[in-house]
Design brief:
Layout lengths: L12 H24 L8 H19 L2 H4 L2 H21 L6 H15 L3 H17 L13 H75 L10 H25 L6 E5 H18 L3 E6 L5 E5 H17 L5 E8 L5 E7 L33 H11 L3 E6 L5 E6 L5 E2 L15 H10 L22
Parallel strand pairs: 2-4
Antiparallel strand pairs: 1-3, 3-8, 4-5, 5-7, 6-7
């Protein structure tokens, strides 16, 4: 859910306009005092001209609409104009101390880098004190120089520019927050749209797959087994599209917070054997070996069965897809840290080192574009990472070009259960009908009711 951005203290346009113009009047008074009451500038015609220019500029600001007044161009012009006046005051009249010019630009720098209006004001007050310290004259001579008048000039300038900087900073922060909120809302709407569309596409797919099974049964009854091969492309393409839809649906639910975890005491070996048995035929068709090594057969973890099944299936499918010779090995063992680890290693084409940082990004593929050699949406590994991390585990990958890849899921230590504390191995008796449907779909099987809806689909209703 998108939260509204925080309101800033000076967000009221009327108050902002009043404060800005009032502080600039104060700054003009301080600047005019420095000009008109410092000897010998009070009799100089140029001094009166500069004062009139300052008064005219603020009168012009009064006439501007509020939207224009707080525009970056207007405020930048005010800073440039006032800085030019200050340069003319200090450099044009020899009796005004030159260090005032340095301190003036120093308070502008403080206003630009200050984190808050209060901090900048304190720094400006300290800087104005330097105007008195840097010029060591006797107290009887203070009224005969610009030293005493330079201190309030520096302080008022710091106060005005601190307020100006705080308003610009707040405007930028407000714009960034609004842009962030808009982006989050757009992402939420996109995810909801994808989820709803996925449901709409799944419905006709269920019909296609259902009637394909009916036709398959009729052909077998009629003894026309030679025609069964005509149905294989339909089934294969439908299942591929269904898996893509499932991935998009799960990802969209995760992004909008509608994906519901159902952790349970899960015997890991049973999940591994089911998925390996399901994909063994696919590996054999490519002439690959698919080995399963379980060093911890009694391991039980608290994990969502659907998430683990989908993660392992995605890793195995990728390993088989990108391997041409050799094979794939699945292993359940203890890692160097003593934690339970599930690894999938292949002897495939591997990946370049520069691609690894982007490996788990959604829709990311090393070989992208229309000319890519391997099919796929680029969602599999991104979903693996999310499935695993939502259950408190972690996934990592090691790979080098031409030498294969190894993916490791490391389960959390506090997620392991003693075999007697968990349920009996659920290879033939899942915890619930919904869990059975999830596990069957994750391994490419149809649930017993003939549909393809998973238990997690209840997290988001199909369309409005």
């Amino acid at each position: 859910m998108v939260e509204p951005h925080h309101r800033h203290p000076f967000e009221d346009p009327v108050a902002r306009r009043r404060n800005l113009l009032l502080l600039r009047w104060v700054n003009i008074i301080a600047t005019s005092s420095l000009l008109l009451f410092s000897q010998p500038t009070w009799d100089h015609p140029a001094a009166r001209f500069l004062v009139l220019a300052l008064l005219a500029s603020n009168a012009l600001l009064h006439a501007l609409p509020t939207a224009w007044l707080f525009g970056e161009r207007t405020l930048s012009g005010v800073v440039i104009f006032d800085s030019a006046i200050t340069l003319g005051v200090v450099l044009g009249f020899g009796e005004i101390e030159k260090h005032i010019l340095v301190l003036y630009f120093f308070v502008i720098l403080l206003a630009a880098v200050g984190r808050s209006f209060r901090e900048t004001m304190l720094a400006a007050a300290a800087t104005s004190g330097l105007a008195l310290v840097l010029r060591r004259k006797g107290l009887e001579q203070l009224w005969e120089s610009s030293v005493l008048l330079g201190a309030p000039f520096i302080f008022c300038s710091g106060m005005f520019y601190a307020y100006l900087s705080s308003q610009l900073r707040q405007d930028r922060e407000s714009e960034l927050e609004q842009a962030r909120d808009a982006a989050l809302e757009a992402s939420r709407l996109k995810s909801a749209f994808l989820a709803n569309m996925s449901h709409e596409i799944r419905t006709p797919l269920n019909v296609i797959l259902g009637y394909t099974e009916v036709i398959r049964d009729r052909l077998e009854e009629a003894g026309a087994e030679d025609r069964l091969t005509l149905l294989e492309p339909i089934t294969r393409a439908s299942m591929r599209l269904l898996e893509t839809i499932d991935g998009i649906l799960d990802l969209s639910k995760m992004e909008i917070g509608a994906f519901v975890l159902r952790p349970s005491a899960l015997p890991v070996a049973g999940v591994i054997r089911r998925c390996v048995d399901d994909l063994k035929l696919l590996a054999e068709k490519k002439g690959l070996s698919l080995d399963c090594r379980i060093d911890e057969p009694q391991a039980v973890i608290r994990f969502d069965e659907y998430c683990l099944s989908r993660s392992l299936r995605n890793l195995l499918s990728n390993a088989i897809k990108f391997t041409h010779r050799g094979g794939v090995t699945v292993r359940l063992a203890r890692g160097a840290s003593g934690r339970l680890e599930l690894s999938v290693a292949d002897t495939g084409i591997g990946m370049a080192a520069e691609y690894l940082p982007r490996l788990f990004q959604a829709f990311s593929q090393e070989d992208a574009g229309h000319s890519r050699r391997f099919e796929g949406s680029g969602l599999g590994l991104a979903l693996v990472k999310r499935y695993v991390e939502m259950n408190g585990a972690a996934v990592r990958a090691e790979s080098s070009k031409g030498r294969g890849s190894t993916f490791v899921i490391e389960f959390p230590a506090d997620g392991e259960l003693l075999a007697e504390d968990g349920a009996e191995p659920s290879e033939s008796h899942p915890a619930s009908p919904e869990a059975a449907a999830d596990a069957a779909l994750a391994c490419g099987e149809r649930p017993a009711d003939g549909g393809y809806e998973t238990a997690h689909d209840a997290g988001l209703p199909p369309g409005r």
